[in-house]
Write a structure and sequence with these properties.
With 397 residues, this protein is of the alpha+beta class. It is 65% helix and 16% strand. The protein has a 6-stranded antiparallel beta sheet with strand order 1-2-3-4-5-6.
Amino acid sequence: MKRTLTGYIVAEILPPFLLGLSAFTIILLIARILKLVELVVTRGVPFLEIGKLFALILPTFLEMTVPMALLLGIFLGLGRLSSDHELLALKASGISPIQVLLPIGTVALFISLITLLLTTMVRPAANLALKRELFNIAKNRVGTALREKVFNDDFPQILIYVEEVIPPGDTSQGVLIVDRRNPAREDVIFAKVALILSDEESKSISLKLFDGTVYEREKKRPSFSQTRFNTYDFKLDPEEAFGPIRKKERGPKEMSLRRLGKAIQLKEEQGLKPTAELIELHQRFSFAFAPLVLSLLGVALVMIPTRSRAGRSWGFALCLSWLLVYYGLLSIGKALGERDILPAAFALWLPNTVVGLIAIRLFGKALKESPLLIQNKLEDLSSYLNRRLANYLQRDY
């Protein structure tokens, strides 16, 4: 009986879980997908490299969408059983909410381990590989992407014009650069020759300019200052053009657990606050704990007695509401932690703590078969409004 019940409940929540995982991931990836399409259309990046970028971006979103999809699967799966009165039949057969929670808790534990693997190992490695892949794309394509007699604007706030590109593409003649990266001034650079150089260690690309002039104009002054040079190094950031990652050194999001621990220890020895590193550390483990908290919440809400339930639409609306609560608390806690208003541990574990306490309280009500007072009030209000609307329509017709 237990094995049959376990298989039946798991079979109910898995299809909506997989559907929710696909839907939530696609929704969050839409902006990145458009960016990848832009790389293909405007910069000629091959589809194979785009596929690599997509695979490296995916773990960052999966660690968020996996817990979301689990909660949706529980609400839709158990909600279907509730709307068809199958949960009522299970209760009449002596099946308690704990026996319903056990198979779902097992699935949640398995998903928590997968999420922990994503947050602690897969995602940091993927972020680091993504940074390297973006650099390789930029390094291999900056020279060939510079089109002759055209203003090239691949890099934000920079226009590059070349009169002639000399094969194989790492040398150009007749170069004009307009640099607007500094809000206080604008630089216009003329050079006879430009050589494209890349630095693997610092993940940077630069144009080594020969025999030219720099015209510098401050925004508050109409006049120019002129400086002639024999050689001039003009640095480019490939990540500004090809991706969202901007830090040249390895940041907390790209560190392994061991490197993250060493970074925290080093900053503490130097008398600095390792705020960013602590937030990243606690976020990895709090995300992994989220499926357990959300699974308890989902089972509790579905198992609490109620007079009516609107099936899948009810489950979807309830899922979105609690996800807004959870990730709203996460955003607030993270913002307060980044400003050192709250300790990083408390800030990042705030949503798990608050939602977990609510879930325990609700599950206690489910064990006692005690309905929520506010839920009954809302249902009474809904029934009253439906009756008034029906009476109004009958009076008119």
